[in-house]
Write a structure and sequence with these properties.
Helix 2 runs parallel beside helix 4. Helix content is 28%, strand content 27%. The protein contains 6 helices and 9 strands; from the N terminus they run βαβββαββαββαβαα. The radius of gyration is 17 Å and the shape is globular. By secondary structure, the chain is an alpha/beta fold.
Length: 236
Amino acid sequence: MPVPTPHITAKLGDFAKTVLMPGDPKRAKFIADNFLEDAVLVNDVRGVQGYTGFYKGKRVSVMASGMGMPSIGIYSYELFNFYGVENIIRVGSAGALHKELHIRDIVLGQAACTNSNYVSQYELPGNYAPIASYKLLRRAAETAERMGLRYMVGNVLSSDTFYDDSMGTAKWCKMGVLAVEMESAALYMNAARAGKNALCICTISDHIVNDEPPTTAEERQESFTAMMELALEVAE
């Protein structure tokens, strides 16, 4: 497919090798405004803002994914397959399913369970386990240690439903799933299919198990700076 694509107006070369991908377009703008030097807007289709600039001399891009697997599935597919992007690092929020996690802790998604049917497109003769790039995961864990961050590494649940009528989200706890979010499984599958790299870094914004007050929309947009800095340090 030639570029621009139906969803991205950028030209070839406008994106860096690594793209940070928050769900919220306002978080993408916040990262560009507060962490990138010489940031240039390269996409604004449907208000999904994408920027490219420099972080400590490294050329890095940031673009929103929107909410859910269909949305990140489109954007990450086009970035990987049409724009030559090699690495996508999701920087999002998640609901904690593990009692030892607390609000503002960080989760590195080693793998992503899902209740989605996204994998069916590949017509595989069995189940598929979407996993992160070990290179990015190892670098993120080592960097989080150096930064002194509170974090856990493990399985996340990428759910198609935010309002779950079955109230089944907590059932994943018994299988050791750390947190629930809505995008990583599709991102990991797209990366695998394209032969590229992906990692989910999430900040705990609310708790499904413990009684901890959730963060506000503004806090999710502007105060999860430890996660943002961690992802930028990991970027190549």
